[in-house]
């Protein structure tokens, strides 16, 4: 792997594309029925591979991963002093008990994936599509960094899957809301930012149409290339007392750093807005049937208005999985043509875009995951 530092990522990308492609096969004859019957086995093998890579990687894979490895030799009291949440204190206690740091990334990835898997079942998305877009969207690569927040994201989407299930406490909606808030509290034990997810159920009220997407895209572009959000953030720090204390005040770079704002960074965002516009305009039935995940994806794109501001990206991370669910459901279900393009050709364009975007981010070593080394 030393001679080909990105080889393992290209390998899982190819598998991810194959998984997405295989989801288009319909069980119409004996050969496809036989093929369908072995899919759970291949899904399991691919998942094991992803878990293995996340668990047995070197401490150099991931910008923050070396820091998490260093926490293993610290006491829980020392970790408390640097604002490590109680959930991770428990995970580190388990890791020290078995004397193996790898317990930490193993449990972290299980928390992350279990939540996404549970949500995918709630919206009736196939496992091969989930695994395929998990990789192609770069979300899997992102999960190799910032593992505390990724664990919290998994718990949050587990909570959302229960909240959206109308059969759970259907006659007592307020109990369902209380259950959701309680599970968000559990998520906050892995990363304090999870409290932002309290507002996620309100996404269903976000208006979605081609006109709103155009308006949202224009506002996002303006915000992306200006300092508006970074200038506003110090005035809103009272909403983030945990981070104010942790980052030594409202003028910390965490609140005011605008992040990257170049044309190169904005172009993939613009392309995604165009995709969303076309789907909203030509495939409105799909949007109507999948309003919640469409609105979640729209909200994710709109938060690029922060132009990479660190505080905004913390919130935006809880919306990132909607990208996987939106395009996963679209590729799996939509049959409506887009302009003069047949539905399947438009799906090919989407998958190719995310594949090229994956390689682009890999080349820029987003999340510090290159080179991949086992250790």
TrEMBL record:
The keyword Membrane applies. Keywords: Membrane, Transmembrane, Transmembrane helix. InterPro entries: EpsG-like. The chain crosses the membrane at residues 6-25, 37-56, 101-117, 129-147, 153-170, 177-199, 205-225, 263-284, 296-324, 345-363. This is EpsG family protein. It comes from Loigolactobacillus jiayinensis. The lineage of its organism: Bacteria, Bacillati, Bacillota, Bacilli, Lactobacillales.
């Amino acid at each position: 792997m030393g001679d080909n530092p990105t080889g393992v990522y290209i390998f899982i990308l190819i598998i991810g594309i194959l998984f997405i492609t295989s989801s288009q096969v319909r069980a119409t004859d004996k050969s496809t029925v036989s093929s369908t019957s072995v899919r759970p086995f291949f899904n399991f093998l691919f998942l094991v591979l992803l878990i293995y890579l996340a668990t047995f990687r070197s401490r150099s894979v991931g910008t923050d991963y070396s820091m998490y490895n260093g926490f293993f030799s610290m006491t829980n009291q020392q970790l408390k002093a640097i604002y490590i949440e109680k959930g991770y204190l428990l995970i580190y206690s388990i890791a020290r008990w078995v004397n193996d740091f790898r317990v930490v990334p193993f449990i972290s990835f299980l928390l992350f994936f279990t939540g996404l898997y549970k949500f995918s079942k709630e919206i009736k998305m196939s496992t091969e599509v989930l695994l395929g877009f998990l990789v192609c969207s770069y979300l899997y690569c992102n999960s190799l960094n910032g593992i505390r927040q990724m664990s919290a994201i998994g718990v949050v989407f587990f909570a959302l899957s229960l909240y959206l299930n109308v059969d759970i406490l259907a006659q007592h909606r307020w109990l369902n809301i209380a259950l959701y808030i309680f599970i968000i509290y559990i998520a906050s034990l892995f990363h304090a930012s999870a409290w932002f997810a309290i507002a996620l159920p309100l996404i269903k009220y976000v208006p979605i149409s081609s006109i709103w997407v155009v308006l949202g895209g224009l506002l996002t572009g303006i915000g992306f290339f200006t300092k508006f959000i970074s200038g506003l953030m110090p005035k809103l720090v009272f909403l983030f007392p945990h981070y104010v204390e942790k980052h030594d005040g409202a003028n910390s770079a965490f609140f005011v750093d605008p992040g990257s704002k170049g044309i190169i960074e904005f172009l993939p965002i613009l392309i995604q807005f165009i995709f969303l516009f076309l789907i909203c305009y030509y495939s409105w039935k799909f949007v109507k049937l999948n309003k919640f995940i469409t609105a979640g994806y729209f909200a994710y794109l709109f938060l690029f208005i922060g132009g990479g501001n660190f505080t905004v990206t913390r919130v935006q991370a809880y919306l990132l999985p909607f990208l996987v669910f939106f395009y996963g459901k679209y590729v799996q279900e939509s049959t409506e043509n887009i302009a003069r393009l047949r539905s399947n050709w438009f799906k090919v364009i989407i998958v190719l875009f995310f594949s090229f975007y994956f390689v682009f981010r890999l080349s820029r070593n987003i999340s510090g995951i290159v080179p991949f080394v086992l250790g």
